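We now fix the convention by which a protein and its fold are recorded. The integers have meaning only within a learned vocabulary of local backbone shapes. A record is reproduced here so that you can trace the correspondence yourselves:
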Amino acid sequence: MSVPNSGPAAPPPPVWDAHPAGAAQIAYGGFWIRLVAYIIDAILLSIAYGIAGSVLGFNVFATDIEHYSPSANLISLLVGWLYFALLESSERGATVGKMAMGLRVVTDKGERLSFLNATGRYFAKIISAIILCIGFIMIAFTDRKRGLHDMIAGTLVIKTR
């Protein structure tokens, strides 16, 4: 006796396997695709900063010293840190921008990042930036497409599709 079909089964939740079947199948996220992912993240973070500033009563986008608020820098640091660290250490292993571009951040061994590892990677980006962004430019020229912050944190950015 067959069971009547009650409709299509729901697809399983998305799971990103950080362990591709063969070593030859690993593709790394290069400079340009990571830049596009970061631009998507920057747009989302700008919206979040604007909302946070409005709720807390200060202008996070002030360009003159009269309207500057040190709290705005603290809020932007906190929001940015939590956004990158929480999402990159999540089950999906990627920020919204990286997900949109089909990227995932993993450890050197292809494992999911811990929150502490993702936090270290976020703050290592400051070093990549203050040396004239050379830490980011390195992505275009290294064998596994790693920036200085990836080397410091022991991470890789891999393509998932």
